[in-house]
Design brief:
mainly alpha
Length: 54
């Protein structure tokens, strides 16, 4: 199981580096989409917690 995690992690790292090197604009778009998703999720959790308190 530990070996499979290492292989997947290295594969992901290679993919990320390849994407950044070959297409920096696309990589920036993907990062932006990721951060927007995290921000949206955090906002949803905040709204949920606020509704629980009220």
């Amino acid at each position: 199981m530990g070996q499979a995690k290492k292989v997947v992690l290295y594969g992901l790292a290679v993919f990320v580096l390849y994407t950044i090197i070959t297409s920096p604009e696309r990589a920036a778009e993907l990062v932006q989409v990721g951060f927007e998703g995290i921000s949206s999720a955090a906002q949803g959790v905040g709204e949920f917690m606020s509704s629980l308190v009220n």
